[in-house]
Amino acid sequence: MKRSKIIAVCGSSVVDGEGENRARQVGRLIARQGFALVCGGLGGVMEASCSGAKEEGGITIGILPGSHREDANPFVDVPIVTGIGHARNSIIVQTANAVIALPGGAGTMSEISLALKVGTPVVALDAWKEISGIKHASSPAEAVDIATKVVMENRS
Predict the structure, then answer these.
(1) Cβ distance 64 to 70 under 8 Å?
(2) What's 96's domain CATH number?
(3) Is 92 helix (H, G, I), strand (E, B) or coil?
(4) What is the distance between the alpha carbons of residues 65 and 87, in angstroms, rounded to a whole number?
(5) Dihedral of CA 124/82/15/20: which sign?
(6) In what helix (H) or strand (E) does residue 9 lie, and over which residues does it extend?
(7) For residue 77, with 0-12 CB atoms within 10 Å meaning exposed, 13-18 middle and 19 or more buried, which class applies?
(8) What is the pLDDT of residue 30?
(9) pLDDT tens string 46-99
């Protein structure tokens, strides 16, 4: 059976123009590399990255905190309702082969922490420089390049 290649994207649920553009570019590049994108399924970085992935024909998965699939942003292909609130962050990072973390708050920090705890590689874009154990990127292309290389190295 073929194993899936999935990259998680996490970041703020509220994003400005430049942050939205960078998240959308991350999503596009993930899809171009043939990876599915998993995220929390709501707005901000999650919606922008899903939008980018869909522009490239990619597959998007939203792990929703609530119990209503209609809460998913319009670019989520597979909405997974959990009803477990922020605990869904654990599902996101364990589903992914790698995590790309953009600027965000406590929710993003929890995803980074959980990923590090379970051994899912984390690549930070424009943020989280003070956290050890993660790789850093200065552009969407570099972030996706690092994440895909880490995933492919771990698959062989």
Answers:
(1) no
(2) 3.40.50.450
(3) helix
(4) 8
(5) positive
(6) strand 6-10
(7) middle
(8) 98
(9) 999 999 999 999 999 999 999 999 999 999 999 999 999 999 999 999 999 999
Q: pLDDT band for 3, please (50, 70, 90 cuts).
A: low
Name the nearest CA neighbour of 127 among 145, 116, 141, 143: 143
Asked whether the beta carbons of 62 and 39 are under 8 A apart, the reply is yes
Residue 129 DSSP code: T
What are φ and ψ of residue 118, in 5° steps? Answer: -95, 0
Per-residue confidence band for 27, with pLDDT thresholds at 50, 70 and 90: very high
Residue where the block lists tokens 């994207």: 9
pLDDT at residue 108 tops 50? yes
- For residue 40, being part of any structural domain is answered with yes
Whether residue 1 is contained in a domain is answered as no
43/20 Cα distance (integer angstroms): 10
Beta strands in the chain (DSSP E): 6-10, 36-39, 60-64, 78-81, 98-101, 122-125, 135-137
Number of domains in the chain: 1
> Helix, strand, coil % (nearest 5) of the chain?
45, 20, 35
- Host H or E run for residue 54: helix 45-55
Which tokens in the block code for residue 64? 């929703």
- What pTM does this model have? 0.95
